């Protein structure tokens, strides 16, 4: 068993390495030492340095030329969404099967897709009834989900963990809104008739709102750190990450900042966590293996995006299409977030598969 896992981990390491520029490639022993502890994560040295480096480079370019990355925003966002964004959620059905002990029987499958689709249908319908509330719910959901993916490795007690997740998410979602209300305004207006710039302080005291968003998170990290049962390795990096992500969101076009965070921090990080999860639950998976598992729903999503784009091109309705896309994203994020929440509640005992436990 341990041999098999060891070998599969080596394969992951090799495939991760082949994705990195050669000057960043880790020495073989470096990564293999980590591999034996299932530890290829966003926090692994070379991956971390690459992600942090790209983030700081974008922030530097943004600081240099103001909003100069604006014209590239759509392209950058598409790359992030296609390469890691969509695939990171495209294996949810496999994760759910493991977590809930679902078999491939028609009954189990119908149960899963029934719940999943019903949840999406209810939330989707609510968007047409109470759009502003649905937007608010989506922002809070996104905050929690982003914060959780970033900080679950701290293993805090559950209430404190949730406070910390929301605090990180408030920084990530709040900064682009507070820093560029003029850009976010038409988007939220088209979706839910919400005027960000009419929120108290956002338009008039933008700098102070941004400062408050950053400070609250630094304070939260500092206060909760002593409460972690064991200080996680590299805890101090969260202060570096907070600084880097704040710089990113303050300096570049919000869609570019979102693309960098969502593609490299959230989605790449989650993909690496999922590879670890599959290996832990007796389903040895390499990085290419992950993409193979994600292929079906990734391709279906591409087709959906293409259809939406083609419709916009031929009929106009640009604002309506942005709104529709946003609603679709939110509707798909709801079940994704619930499954990921369960995933993080799994104790990390290697060797016992949840499927075995559930059986
Ligand atoms: C447009 C826009 C936003 C979009 C957020 C989105 C689209 C979040 C998607 C989250 C997903 C899909 C999570 C799944 O893992 C922000 C950042 C709130 C604020 C600035 C304007
Ligand atoms: Fe996610």
TrEMBL record:
Its EC number is 1.13.11.63. It is found in: Cell membrane. Keywords: Cell membrane, Dioxygenase, Iron, Membrane, Metal-binding, Oxidoreductase, Transmembrane, Transmembrane helix. Pfam families: BCD. Its main location: membrane. The chain crosses the membrane at residues 47-66, 72-91, 112-130, 136-156, 163-184, 206-227, 239-264, 294-310, 322-344. It catalyses: all-trans-beta-carotene + O2 = 2 all-trans-retinal. GO terms for cellular component: plasma membrane. It is a multi-pass membrane protein. It comes from the Bacteria. One of its GO terms (biological process) is carotene catabolic process. Its cofactor is Fe(2+). Catalyzes the cleavage of beta-carotene at its central double bond (15,15') to yield two molecules of all-trans-retinal. Belongs to the Brp/Blh beta-carotene diooxygenase family. This is Probable beta-carotene 15,15'-dioxygenase. It comes from Longibacter salinarum.
């Amino acid at each position: 068993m341990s041999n098999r896992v060891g070998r599969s981990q080596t394969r992951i390491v090799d495939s991760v390495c082949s994705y990195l520029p050669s000057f960043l490639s880790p020495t073989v022993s470096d990564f293999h030492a980590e591999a034996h502890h299932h530890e290829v994560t966003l926090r692994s040295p070379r991956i971390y340095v690459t992600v942090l480096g790209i983030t700081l480079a974008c922030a530097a370019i943004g600081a240099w030329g103001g909003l100069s990355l604006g014209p590239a925003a759509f392209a950058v966002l598409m790359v992030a969404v296609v390469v890691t964004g969509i695939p990171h959620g495209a294996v949810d059905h496999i994760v759910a099967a493991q977590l809930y002990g679902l078999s491939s029987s028609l009954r189990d499958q119908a149960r899963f897709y029934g719940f999943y689709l019903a949840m999406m249908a209810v939330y989707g319908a609510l968007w047409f009834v109470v759009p502003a509330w649905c937007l608010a719910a989506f922002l809070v959901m996104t905050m929690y989900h982003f914060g959780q993916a970033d900080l679950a490795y701290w293993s805090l007690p559950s209430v404190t963990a949730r406070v910390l997740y929301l605090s990180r998410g408030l920084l990530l979602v709040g900064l682009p809104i507070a820093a560029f209300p003029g850009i976010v305004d038409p988007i939220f207006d088209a979706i839910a008739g919400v005027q960000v710039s009419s929120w108290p302080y956002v338009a008039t005291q933008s700098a102070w709102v941004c400062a408050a968003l950053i400070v609250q998170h630094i304070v939260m990290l500092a206060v909760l750190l002593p409460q972690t049962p064991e200080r996680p390795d590299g805890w101090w990096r969260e202060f570096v990450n907070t600084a880097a992500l704040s710089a990113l969101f303050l300096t570049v076009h919000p869609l570019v900042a979102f693309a960098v965070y969502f593609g490299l921090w959230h989605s790449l990080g989650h993909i690496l966590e999922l590879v670890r999860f599959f290996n832990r639950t007796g389903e040895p998976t390499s990085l290419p293996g992950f993409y193979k598992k994600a292929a079906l729903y990734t391709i279906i999503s591409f087709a959906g995006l293409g259809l939406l784009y083609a419709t916009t091109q031929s009929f106009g309705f640009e604002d309506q299409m942005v709104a529709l896309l946003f609603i679709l994203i939110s509707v798909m994020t709801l079940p994704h977030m619930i499954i990921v929440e369960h995933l993080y509640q799994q104790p990390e005992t290697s060797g016992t598969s949840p499927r075995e436990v559930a059986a």
